């Protein structure tokens, strides 16, 4: 073999090796799996199956995947000659992995997912179309929403199993707002179960929790009956990317700044979530300032996971005498379990501190399930049944309902299923007798035995008509939502901006003052504030 032959042989060998390497690489499974892509060492995307989340979530994730598979089989390959049941898809868009500074803790993710899954199971037990719960991971910091939206958008045009809505997006951040606007651009109805910042507004974006302004108005009603002294103090999280905290700070100043002197008595801290530089949750200077000014009413514009650190610092601050009671006013979804544990409860009582929270739901008041209304009672029955099927899952925690996440994610999913069911009945008739087709000549004809599934546009048009109606006998709930968190509705009014209307806003005191004897029997609970109740002369249903 001459030199030229050896060169040719070498080239052929290199080409063959390259080809083999290409085939091997192509044959290897993608690191993130089907429907996902890698972004900043996270796998973001959408699936009806199992995704790679925190290990503590494995039981819940697999249970959702099993239910999704059952729903698909009921349409494509029903067992024992059963009738085919059509289905639609709803996406839960939020993180499924965490670290020390991520937007949700593993426990919060578990409770949110559990609440959504409960709503899925309840909806699939009813007549009408069934529902797949898609898991859409947009990253631990919510900043990888673009590839997720790119995958969701085409699903809305799917005729066999259309995507009819999206919910989730847990934190009020610029990324959350950008994602909501992108989904609105595709006319996909989107619901924020626990968003409260007044900045969270987009064309197709609904919120089942009250806004910060509405929550603070509920605190205003509380303070009218319990004014305390005029010495207040404002504590706020100064993180730049947290729209929730900055918005709440502004709302507190707007409503209480003058009466409680908040402009001249305030301090800030760095919250845990986010990548801002500096040591988070430092409250020593804040606590000293509160004690120095002898403030009895502290307005907390921060997130619940930071609050226990403020309480502990106040309770141990040497300059605080703790001879007079102090209230910390907050807003939120419920009462976070970290704020009601044994140790912090002892600190609250010893330092005479009471947490006063305007909330989306008061599960602390669900002491007697038998006396609950139908909405929370039905939710609670399915929730406890689901919890018993996975008792070893460590993410649920001892108080899985207290923070309200499970309830509000349940209600957000239920808004979309209720709207879908109603649109489905309207399109197909009460008995689902068939859908209208179109032949080549353009004539509209019935196709016996077939049904037409609602589109995302049909669902949006139904949600905006889930309204509370004023009648000569008072406000009426005909098309509105009767959820686990109470009765509420939506409309397309520029005044309400797609926040829930007539949503109950309970004010929770913790630790609750003990009631004994005659006072306990005669004391009536305070009237619960309802969002936009002035539109109905205070007579929400």
Number of helices: 14
Measured as a percent range, the helix fraction is 25-40%
End-to-end gap? 95 Å
Q: Strand arrangement, largest sheet?
A: 1-2-4-3-5-6-7
Which structural class is indicated by helix and strand composition?
alpha/beta
Estimated radius of gyration: 26 Å
What is the approximate shape?
globular
Question: Can you walk through the features of this model?
Answer:
The protein is an alpha/beta fold. Helix content is 36%, strand content 18%. It contains 14 helices and 21 strands. The protein has a 7-stranded mixed beta sheet with strand order 1-2-4-3-5-6-7, sandwiched between helices. A 6-stranded mixed beta sheet has the order 9-8-10-11-12-20. Strands 13-14 form a two-stranded antiparallel sheet. β3 (87-94), α3 (106-124) and β4 form a beta-alpha-beta unit. α12 crosses α13. The radius of gyration is 26 Å and the shape is globular.
Layout: helices, strands, pairs:
Elements: H1 3-27, E1 36-39, E2 42-47, H2 58-76, E3 87-94, H3 106-124, E4 130-137, H4 145-155, E5 163-168, H5 174-185, E6 190-192, E7 205-207, H6 212-225, E8 232-237, H7 243-256, E9 266-269, H8 284-293, E10 297-301, H9 307-316, E11 326-332, H10 342-350, E12 353-359, H11 374-389, H12 405-428, E13 434-438, E14 444-448, H13 456-463, E15 468-471, E16 474-477, E17 481-483, E18 486-488, E19 504-505, E20 507-510, H14 517-522, E21 529-530
Parallel strand pairs: 3-4, 3-5, 5-6, 6-7, 8-9, 8-10, 10-11, 11-12
Antiparallel strand pairs: 1-2, 2-4, 12-20, 13-14, 15-16, 17-18, 19-21
């Amino acid at each position: 073999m001459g030199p030229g032959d050896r060169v040719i042989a070498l080239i052929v060998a290199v080409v063959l090796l390259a080809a083999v390497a290409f085939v091997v690489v192509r044959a290897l499974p993608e690191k993130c799996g089907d429907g996902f892509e890698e972004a900043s060492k996270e796998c973001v995307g959408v699936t009806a199956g199992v995704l790679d989340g925190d290990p503590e979530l494995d039981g819940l994730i697999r249970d959702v995947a099993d239910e999704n598979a059952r729903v698909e089989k009921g349409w494509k390959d029903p067992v024992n000659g059963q009738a085919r049941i059509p289905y639609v898809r709803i996406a839960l868009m939020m993180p499924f992995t965490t670290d020390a500074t991520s937007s949700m803790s593993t426990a919060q993710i578990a409770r949110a997912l559990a609440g959504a899954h409960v709503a899925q199971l309840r909806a699939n037990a009813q007549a009408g179309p069934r529902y797949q719960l898609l898991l859409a991971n947009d990253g631990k910091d919510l900043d990888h929403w673009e590839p997720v939206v790119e995958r969701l958008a085409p699903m809305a045009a799917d005729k066999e199993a259309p995507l009819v809505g999206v919910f989730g997006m847990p934190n009020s951040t610029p990324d959350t707002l950008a994602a909501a606007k992108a989904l609105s651009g595709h006319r996909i109805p989107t619901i924020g179960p626990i968003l409260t910042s007044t900045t969270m507004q987009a064309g197709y974006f609904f919120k089942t929790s009250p806004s910060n302004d509405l929550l603070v108005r509920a605190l205003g009603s509380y303070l009218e009956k319990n004014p305390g002294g005029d010495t207040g103090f404002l504590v706020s999280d100064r993180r730049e990317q947290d729209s929730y905290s900055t918005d709440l700070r502004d709302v507190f100043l707007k409503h209480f700044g003058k009466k409680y002197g908040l402009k001249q008595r305030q301090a800030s801290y760095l919250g845990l979530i986010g990548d801002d530089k500096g040591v988070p949750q430092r409250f020593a200077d804040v606590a000293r300032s509160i004690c120095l000014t002898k403030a009895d009413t502290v307005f907390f514009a921060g997130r619940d996971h930071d609050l226990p650190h403020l309480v502990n610092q106040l309770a141990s601050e040497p300059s605080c005498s703790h001879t007079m009671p102090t209230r910390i006013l907050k807003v939120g979804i419920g009462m976070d379990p970290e704020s009601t544990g044994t140790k912090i409860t002892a600190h609250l009582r010893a330092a005479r501190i009471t947490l006063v929270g305007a909330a989306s739901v008061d599960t602390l008041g669900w002491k007697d399930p038998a006396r609950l209304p139908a909405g929370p009672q039905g939710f609670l029955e399915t929730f406890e049944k689901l919890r018993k099927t996975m008792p070893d899952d460590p993410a649920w925690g001892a108080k899985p309902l207290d923070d309200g996440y499970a309830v509000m994610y349940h209600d957000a999913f239920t808004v979309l299923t209720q709207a879908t069911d109603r649109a489905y009945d309207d399109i197909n008739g009460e008995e689902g007798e068939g859908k209208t087709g179109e032949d080549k000549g353009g004539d509209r004809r019935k196709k016996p035995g077939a049904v037409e599934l609602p589109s995302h546009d049909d669902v949006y048009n139904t949600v905006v008509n889930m309204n509370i109606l004023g009648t000569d006998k008072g406000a009426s709930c005909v098309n509105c939502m009767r959820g686990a968190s109470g009765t509420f509705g939506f409309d397309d009014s520029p005044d309400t901006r797609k926040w829930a209307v007539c949503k109950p806003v309970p004010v929770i005191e913790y630790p609750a003052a003990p009631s004994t004897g005659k006072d306990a029997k005669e004391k009536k609970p305070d009237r619960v504030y309802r969002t936009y109740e002035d539109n109905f002369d205070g007579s929400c249903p």
